[in-house]
Amino acid sequence: AIETQEQVIKGMREEGDASSTIHLTGNLLIMRRSLGVTDELLNSFRTFAEEYKRRNSWDTEGLATCTSLLAQCYEELGYFDESLFHQLQATELVRSSHDIGVREGQVHNLGCRYEARGDFPRAHQLYKQALTLAEKSNNPLWKANHLAGLAGTYAARGQHETALELIDQALIIRHEIGDLGGTARNLSTKANILLDLGRTVDATHAAK
Fold first, then answer.
1. How far apart are CA 139 and CA 133, in angstroms?
2. Cβ–Cβ under 8 Å, residues 207 and 187
3. 2 with 32: CB under 8 angstroms?
4. Within a 13 Å sphere around the CA of 87, how many CA atoms are in the beta-carbon half?
5. What are 19-41's pLDDT values in tens digits?
6. What Cα–Cα distance (Å) separates residue 205 from each residue in 46, 95, 208?
7. pTM surpassing 0.70?
8. Is 173 in contact with 183 (CB distance < 8 Å)?
9. 6: burial class by Cβ within 10 Å (0-12, 13-18, 19+)?
10. pLDDT, tens only, 125-156
């Protein structure tokens, strides 16, 4: 799929279709990221973000998405300061957006960046803020993400029973919307919480 996408992009470049090329390039980078982040991919994301800003400076939501993806790449390579710096930019870009879902997503992403740094109190605040926005956006996938994020912050602070309640709420939503990938991740989280509680048998069951 990646090779096919690269061939399509090459053809569009030759035809001078800059608008389609940049969006397809973004999709290609996201596909490559699923295979693992490298310094080379990080540099490609940086170049893409700069090019997107040059061509689409009016598109604050698109810029926020590019910047947030760049932040995630930095994080996966262990550059936590750079990751937080870019995610703060992304969140600020959509702070006044009329699209609640867009604001909600970037607030959640900011929570993820703080959680990665071990700042669980700040991450907790942001996940709760995002969950409040979810009540207005009515996006069940994001709501499940926020609940799972909150579960992680509670577990990190030793409040495992509350964490279990929240992860179970997230799992119910994911089952309802058919989110198999999210379900697998949350079951893994649940298993780890149960292990922390010494409930080995329940943890084994959850991990199956």
1. 10
2. yes
3. yes
4. 27
5. 445 566 677 787 788 888 999 98
6. 42, 42, 5
7. yes
8. no
9. middle
10. 999 999 999 999 999 999 999 999 999 999 99
